[in-house]
Each structure stands twice: as structure tokens, then as C-alpha cells.
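Session log. Operator J.P. requested a structure for one protein chain; no other inputs attached. Running the standard single-chain path with C-alpha cell output.
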Amino acid sequence: HLRICLLHAAMLKKALSGLEALSSRPGLPGLKEASSSPTADVEETGRWHYLVTDASGIRPRQDPVYSKGSKEKGATRYPCGAVLEIHRRRRSGWTRWLGLEEGKWLFDISPKDRKVRMVEVEMQSGSWHYQACVSEVAVLPFPQLGQTASRRPSVPIQDGAVFTAVQRVRPVVGRGAFVRLHELDGWVLDFADGTQILQRCQADGDEEPLSPFAITAVMDEHGNLDDEEAEVGEWRYIVLDPKGVTLRDRATYDKSAKLNVRVEEGEIVNVLERRDGDDTVFLRVEGSGGVTGWAFTTQPGLDSFLRLLEVEVRQFSWHYQVTASKGCALRKRCSLADSAKAGKSLEKGQLVNIRRRVEVGSTICLGLADGTWICYPKDQNPPVDGPLEVHKMNNEEAEITAEGGVTLRKGPTELSWALTNKVLLDGSKVLAIRRAYLHGEMWMEVMQLGGLSGWMLACDLQLEFDLSSKPGRNR
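Structure written below.
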């Protein structure tokens, strides 16, 4: 009996661990291959610099494919802090594949878990003078994001002391730059946690503006970033974090600024303002009910990962027909997670009007007029077929010509679920509302005065004009 109980306990533990893994699975998986992706951008060629930010380093791959087989066997990892020269770039979902001159490939954001592995930087070598704005600084052995003064041992210096910088590395996204100081034999971040640490000295008689690396921060009375160069406009972002995002009352990481407003994974939000932070971009998000709050694109710290991604929402009005044998589940937001299900589904053969289309990672999302979504992976057969030929009629008068009458249907399909108890007798007068040419047959949506409406085959209807020169069931 004891052995049986232990066996049952082990099986239960295994089952619970499986459920836990399933519940934490992201509802928006990434694209793992760039070369064969039909949505991948045209390859860019040029010269860029990228900083390795992953503490474990990053291993090159033979091809721009995220798989064990694509890893370069026996290759040495590029360490954290290394600045690499990139000559080719390919976009695939939220991942940008980066080609080295020798033909190897790296990536900036992991397709698997959205972890930030590399960031684009501007790199310069020369000789500049910087003045200290504080009495102690954190000296780093190499440029490393997330290593702020609070996380590194500080070196005491004299406030106002002047140092010579021989190299500068500035992330394209974010505030501040890493400068390599000759006197300290290490790297110092000139701006961190809202504090100016180093200020570039301006040479006597030099009327040229300060380098963009010397960023002066302006703080308001609440310690909030007061950046006059903030972008104001309108953009669309989607939440990628499976745990969702809690908005804040100001552009800060401070947890005490959190609002009681949460945006779930897969929700598409309007962004009204963008501001650069230390290692990220702060977004002023328009929430439900007109409430606005702040979020950020990447989680700060050593294990940085992508939380919100800018997306293109295509607007149109197309008709699709459900083709999946078991129908198609509707979702409240753009996510394949079970929690995103809307609790209702579409039947096979049902006709739907699609108003929006979004592609994110390896997922395609089609938006219906009522705000629900159809979501499916790109590498699987889509559950719907379209766009289809569906046209409005001008309420043309018509007459039922089928002997024995016609039973109306809920949709343009001969499947049993679509049958209704509405019957139109031979010779009945109707108005034609819409026509749809689907899979070699012409269907017509008709209506009688009094609200009786539904779909029927056009061959059982006589209009004032012929829809097609095709005989029989195709008219």
C-alpha cells in the first residue's frame, strides 16, 4: 500500500508540474527562423555595432535559425561586454538576426523567451575630458547594462575632478553612455538612475554643442523625468509579457508608482508619448476608460527582456469563412493562451467580417468587428479561408423558384448546424441583401418583410438579372 501511495504521489506531482509549465507558456511564441519566414524584412547590409548584454555571453550560429542544430559547434561564446561589428541584419518577429563579417549569425532578442541578448550601440575612440558630478562612481570592467551604482562597489572620487575618456559606447535606445576613463582603468556610466555622474567638459573657445553622449537630465519635483525631447504622437504596442503589465503614474521603475490598472498579454494599446529611460523606453499608455499610465518596453536589470513591442495594425474590411473541422475559438485579445479565450467559437462554414490584422512573433491575429480575435500559428493551416468574394446587393427583388420551397440557413454552408426552421415557399418574394461566391457555388443572403432572413443557394432564386452566365447551381 505504501508503494502504491508513493507511486500515486509521484504521478500527481508530475501532472501538477506539467500543468504549471503549461500555464506559464507564453501565448505569443516567437519566430525561430528568419531565412524562410514570409514576413521577414529584406536583408539590410551595412555596418553597425552591437553590445553583448547577456551575462552568460552569446554563441554564434551557422544560420539565422533558432535551433540546437544551428549552433556553431566548438565555437567560443562572445562574452558580456563585447562590442561586435555587424554587417547584415534580418528582422523576424521581435528578433533581429545579426550577421558577422565571417558569415556567422547572432540575435538581439531571444525568439524563445524575449530575453535581451544584445543591444545596438554607437562606439567611438578618441580623447575627451569629463568632469565628475558626484563624489563616488561605480567602475565596471566592461560596458554592462543593468550594472548601476547601487549594484557595484563604488570608488570615491573628488567632486569636480576631471578625467580623460578614451572610448565611448552609447546604446541607441536609452539614456547615457559608457565612457572608459584612463585614470580609473575602467568603464563608468555617465548617467544612471536619474543622476548625471559625468559631464563632458567644453574646451575653451569651443562653441560647438556638447556631444550627444553628455545628456543632462531634468527632474521635476516628484523625481520624474522631465524630458523636453519626449516624442508625442500615436503608436500601437502589444503586451508580450505572459504576466501582463501594471501601469504606473509616472515614467519610473519605482513599484510604489504602480496604479490599479493592468494590461494583459496580447492586448494592443495606444501609446501617446515615448521617453528614453536608463536601459529602456517609457511609454505613456492609454488604458481602458480613458485612464492613462506609464509602462516600459524592456524589463530593467541584468536579465532584461522585452515586455511591449510596437506593431502595425492593418485596417480593412474582408470576409473569411471558417474552414477548421472543429470550428474556431474566439479570443478576447491577441494571445493563444487559454486565459484569452472569449468563451465562444465559430462553426465551420460560418462567414465572418475581418477588420484588423496583426502579426507578432509566430502568431497571426485577425480582428472581428465585435472586438474579438482569431489567432493561429503561422506554421499551421489557418482556421479560416479568405479574403472571399462577398458583395452587397441593393435589396434587389427576387422570387423563390425551388419546388417545395427553401429552408434558410444561418451561414453560406450546407452543414447541418446552419439549418433553421425558417422556410420560404415556392413563389415567395424576397429581397437580396448579399451574395457570396464560395468554393464554386453562389450563395445569397435574402430577407422578407417582417425580419425573416438567412442564406440560400442562388440557383433556387430568380432575380431581375442574372448573376452569372454559369448554368445551374453556379448562378
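Operator note: The longest helix spans residues 2-23.
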